[in-house]
Write a structure and sequence with these properties.
Blueprint (H helix, E strand, L loop, with lengths): L1 H7 L2 H28 L7 H22 L8 H21 L1 E3 L2 E7 L2 E3 L1 H19 L7 H20 L4 H16 L5 H24 L1 H4 L2 H11 L10 H13 L24 H34 L3 H26 L16 H27 L2
Antiparallel strand pairs: 1-2, 2-3
Helix pairs in contact: 1-14, 2-3, 2-12, 3-14, 4-5, 4-6, 5-6, 5-7, 5-13, 5-14, 6-7, 7-13, 11-12, 12-13, 12-14, 13-14
Enzyme class: transferase
Function: Peptidoglycan polymerase that is essential for cell division.
Main location: membrane
């Protein structure tokens, strides 16, 4: 039995995931070595060593999630504890959270900073997938099948947006939308949902005006002005985007060589997090960019393929949710680096520095690998 289970794992998916994580660790060292000394006044390998610890912990989580049967997540007690637990933590952050980059969305644990909103992504994926899988018989019943999970989705998004962290809230909302689309719901029910959403947006518009000073802060407005005309604001709001352009443009096809980036020498404020792709493009050129985008695309497409092949609605929707999370986050990060969308502070999956994000993604990948394993096992040995 165990031999059959081990043979059923998709080792190509596992290999690409590990390669991206190791490549990200290398690039974190390259991108952060100067900024660690100049800006944070720590050793040049400070962020590299921390990311290495995060990666080891994340690999343990990945192995555990890959070995644990995904169907157990459908347990009602687990769903209740995880959903209300993450909601309670997010509410507590509004009062006791640590503020970083003008968002009160962190808390310290043993010297490490944890961002619970990252784990809210996976909680929403599991919860909505479980509920819509259970409601398949009346998925088009607006009151019974459609509304209940969306209430929790909107509530969690609102709490995260109140921190304020609009980037994460927007990603979670989009992830929820992809699960709704893949739930088997008819277009008529979705259309009713869209109309209801527009009505709620209109009703909440006075709150936007009331809280405009907190929501539309100078920093948030600056992201739009810098996006619309970065060269006009190259000494201010467009500074990051302009230097990102310079990094990408100077990299060319082959790049300047690993560790040879100029823009990381104090020009890109956060070269190891939001703008790590700009450093990759400058040092490794088109080949480095193709490697990262190709690896991310492979994981996303494998996830979608797993969802299509999965006969269990719960597993299928979870695979869609995990794939969409990686795709959406990657698209938003790359769009900001290229100046196609305003900068949101969203990191690049598996590549950027960040312990919470890496742990969440590793657990998610473990679940996706487990779903794929069950699909292959049932196809090969039970037909």
């Amino acid at each position: 039995m165990w031999k059959k289970i081990l043979k059923s794992y998709d080792y190509s998916l596992i290999a690409v995931f590990i390669l991206l994580c190791l490549f990200g660790l290398t690039m974190v060292y390259s991108a952060s070595s100067v900024v660690a000394v100049q800006k944070y006044e720590v050793a040049s390998d400070y962020f590299y060593n921390r990311q290495k610890i995060f990666l080891i912990i994340s690999m343990v989580f990945f192995i555990a999630a890959a070995a644990f049967p995904y169907k157990a997540y459908r347990n009602s007690k687990f769903l209740f504890i995880s959903l209300f637990g993450i909601l309670a933590v997010l509410i507590l952050l509004l009062f006791f959270g640590k503020t970083t980059n003008n968002a009160q969305s962190w808390f310290s644990l043993g010297g490490l900073s944890i961002q619970p909103a990252e784990f809210a992504k996976l909680v929403i994926i599991i919860y909505m997938s479980a509920v819509y899988a259970k409601k398949q018989k009346y998925i088009n019943s607006f009151n019974k099948g459609v509304i209940p999970p969306i209430v929790f989705l909107v509530l969690i998004c609102m709490v995260i947006a109140a921190q304020p962290d609009f980037g994460t809230a927007f990603i979670i909302f989009l992830i929820g939308c992809t699960i709704i689309v893949s739930s088997g719901m008819k277009f008529k029910s979705m259309w009713k949902l869209i109309v209801l959403g527009l009505m709620i947006a209109v009703l909440l518009s006075p709150m936007l005006i009331w809280k405009k000073d907190r929501i539309f802060t100078e920093e948030k407005i600056s992201r739009f002005t810098g996006y619309l005309d970065p060269f006009e604001h190259r000494e201010g709001h467009g500074y990051q985007v302009v230097n990102s352009y310079l990094a990408i443009g100077s990299g060319g096809v082959t790049g300047s060589g690993l560790g040879q980036s100029v823009q990381k020498l104090g020009y890109l404020p956060e070269p190891h997090t939001d703008f790590i792709m700009a450093v990759i493009a400058e040092e490794l050129g088109v080949f480095g960019v193709i490697f990262v985008i190709g690896g991310l695309s492979f994981i996303v497409l494998k996830g979608i393929y797993t969802a299509i092949k999965c006969k269990d609605p719960f597993g299928s929707m979870m695979a869609v949710g995990i794939s969409s999370m990686i795709a959406i986050q990657s698209g938003i990060n790359l769009g900001g680096v290229c100046g196609l969308i305003p900068i949101t502070g969203v990191t690049l999956p598996f590549i950027s520095y960040g312990g919470t994000s890496l742990m969440l993604l590793s657990i998610s990948m473990g679940i996706l690998v487990n779903i794929s394993m069950f699909n292959r096992f049932e196809s090969f040995y039970k037909e």
